[in-house]
Amino acid sequence: MSDITREYGLGSRPLAAKWGWFVALGLIMIVAGVLALGDTILVTLLSVIFIGAMMLVSGIVQIVHAFANKSWSAFLFALLCGVLYIIGGFLIMREPVQGSVVITMLLLIVLAVGGVLRIVMAIRHRDVGSWWLMLLGGLITVALAVLLYLSLPWSGLWVLGTLIGVELLVQGVTWTSLGFALRKLR
User: Fold this and answer.
1) Burial class (CB in 10 A: 0-12, 13-18, 19+), 150
2) How far apart are alpha carbons 163 and 150 in whole angstroms?
3) What is d(CA 122, CA 137) in angstroms, rounded to the nearest whole number?
4) CA 178, CA 18: separation in Å to the nearest integer?
5) Digitized pLDDT (tens) for each residue of the chain, 186 residues in all
6) How far apart are CA 153 and CA 37, in angstroms?
7) Residue 26 exposed, middle or buried by CB count within 10 Å (0-12, 13-18, 19+)
8) Rounded distance, CA 185 to CA 129, Å?
């Protein structure tokens, strides 16, 4: 069994014949990532509008679900949540710039809390080798959250688009690499 078979759990060579599809997917994602990084503000605003639309659809489905299950003890709660999702979805789609700032603020909170928790874990486990790497990672995450907070509201316009662009690039390189590794299996 080859390293690629073990690493990716492929288990059969027929997939190797389709290596070109993996490379094509990777290249398309790389191009999309480059384009996204070329206009992070546009990508941010489009992603916020998409999030708002998904909230709107989810709210409608939740209200339909609530009425389909009126006898459920949580009917009123489900109905209220659906209404809140619809209101939130409309607000985000109507004001995507403010929506991007709110989403960025939520991301900052997650980064700050996650960073602080890693710092605490690192300090509590100083007896474990390489504990300082966790400490460093936590400090960098908290610093990133602080820097993004200090640059609000402007960071709200580019953070999501940048994250999406970087994610597309990373996944594109990953799929392309997998495709070329599969090619070697042929």
Assistant:
1) exposed
2) 18
3) 10
4) 11
5) 556 555 555 554 678 788 899 999 999 999 999 999 999 999 999 999 999 999 999 999 999 999 999 888 889 999 999 999 999 999 999 999 999 999 999 999 999 999 999 999 999 998 888 899 999 999 999 999 999 999 999 999 999 999 999 999 999 999 999 999 888 887
6) 19
7) buried
8) 38
Instruction: Give me the residue label for tokens 């994250």.
Output: 163
Residue with tokens 């288990």: 11
Query: 160 — phi, psi (to 5°)?
Result: -60, -45
Q: Which two tokens stand for residue 102?
A: 């709110």
